[in-house]
Write a structure and sequence with these properties.
The protein is 81% helix and 0% strand. It is globular.
């Protein structure tokens, strides 16, 4: 029987644990990216089929955030997280042993289902123990710390791909996932101590109806969706452009990608340092403007015929800086609109990010053979829509 613990203060999980559980999903996404072009030759399939290992990973992470969030509002964060990490480890082993592209795609989907737990539940745990503005700062610092792993992951993945093959990368992920699972099992406290409070843990549809009836939640969610689409469109198109069009190696892709991650980390550092002073909504606005500048510079370089690693990755570094300003603040805003639905809000906002990102990535991957500049059109359009969505949301909310 679940008791109401309204007078109990939850234990704060350690910063290291929050970083680790948040990093598992993005690490599995990025370490695999340099191997995508090579899978075409190994399995004898089109790039569109290979792209499903990325797209369905994003879809799996998106859909399962809808499950983890609302259920964790009812049963707690810890059991959902431990189950997700266990599935991640088993799916990584399945991917390492995959005999065909179809088994690999299925394993990547299951891997995403497990990895999604850390992303959505780490955010909910932060909001369980901190207020709205402080949550934005803490999420920023967590993101800044865990992005170090995805930052170096493409370079590591490229090295593993060249010297050990793509299967070795999944064995590495299985080992790392097992270590994070053991740490969470031993040291992660339960943070959602008011599960029995009236109104807590609404159903999936009921909670969604409540959340999306709030203009502020809709505004933050749209901004997160469009901003994330800029990054995932880049993920869908950059490996093809770098390796197939420009003739560079997977290792070079990984090294250049490090500056994109550095830009994202810098944006999160600025968010953590200045959000409580500047204000959450102003930080979101600044991030949207910077992301738009990066997207337009990428687009201009491609249209002008100046495509090179520098003109591809340096403007994307600027867009990533903007993402680092927007995403932690937008996330903190979205999960703060109704304290009874923190998990559900984290799930639905995360779902919107991943779903739009998956759509952008798959469309870019499918179109780029006949339309090489598709990625740059998508990036420019999504960054503009993010800015317009936030401006519209501010106009709707301020009069009230």
């Amino acid at each position: 029987m679940t008791a109401t613990l309204s007078d109990t203060r939850p234990d704060r999980p350690s910063f290291a644990i929050l970083v680790a559980i948040s990093a598992v999903g993005p690490l599995a996404l990025n370490i695999f990216m340099p191997s995508l072009p090579g899978l075409q030759d190994e399995f004898g399939v089109s790039y569109g089929i290979v792209q499903l290992t990325l797209t369905l990973y994003l879809v799996g992470m998106a859909v399962c955030q809808l499950v983890y969030g609302p259920i964790s509002d009812r049963v707690g964060r810890r059991p959902m997280l431990l189950g997700g990490l266990t599935l991640f480890v088993l799916a990584s082993v399945m991917a390492a042993l995959a005999p065909s592209i179809h088994v690999l795609i299925a394993a990547r989907l299951l891997q995403a289902v497990g990895g999604a737990a850390g992303i959505v539940l780490a955010r909910a745990m932060v909001r369980d123990v901190f207020d709205r503005e402080t949550s934005a700062s803490v999420i920023s610092y967590i993101t800044m710390a865990f992005v170090v792993a995805p930052m170096v992951a493409p370079a590591i993945g490229g090295y593993i791909d060249v010297h050990g093959g793509w299967r070795m990368g999944f064995w590495v992920l299985a080992g790392l996932g097992g270590a994070v699972l053991a740490a969470a099992l031993l040291h992660l406290p339960e943070t959602h101590v008011q599960r029995g409070a009236p109104g807590s843990g609404m159903g999936l549809i009921q909670g969604a109806a409540r959340l999306f009836s709030l203009p502020r939640f809709r505004g933050y969610t749209l901004v997160l969706a469009f901003t994330s689409s800029v990054f995932f469109a880049f993920l869908g198109g950059a490996p093809h452009i770098m390796i197939d069009v420009l003739g560079r190696t997977p290792m070079e892709y990984g090294l250049w990608f490090a500056i994109v991650s550095a830009g994202y980390m810098a944006g999160n550092f600025l968010s953590g340092r200045y959000t409580r002073r500047v204000g959450l909504d102003r930080m979101v606005m600044a991030g949207c403007v910077v992301t738009l500048a990066g997207g337009l510079l990428c687009f201009a370089a491609a249209v002008a015929g100046l495509l090179s690693p520098a003109t591809l990755f340096i403007p994307m570094c600027l867009a990533a800086l903007g993402n680092g300003l927007t995403i932690p603040n937008g996330t903190a805003g979205a999960i703060s609109v109704d304290p009874r639905l923190t998990g559900a809000a984290a799930g639905w906002s995360g779902f919107s990010q991943m779903a739009c990102g998956a759509a952008a990535s798959q469309l870019v991957g499918s179109l780029q053979d006949g339309w090489p500049t598709a990625v740059f059109w998508f990036m420019a359009a999504a960054s503009l829509l993010a800015l317009l969505a936030h401006m519209h949301a501010l106009r709707r909310v301020r009069p009230a």
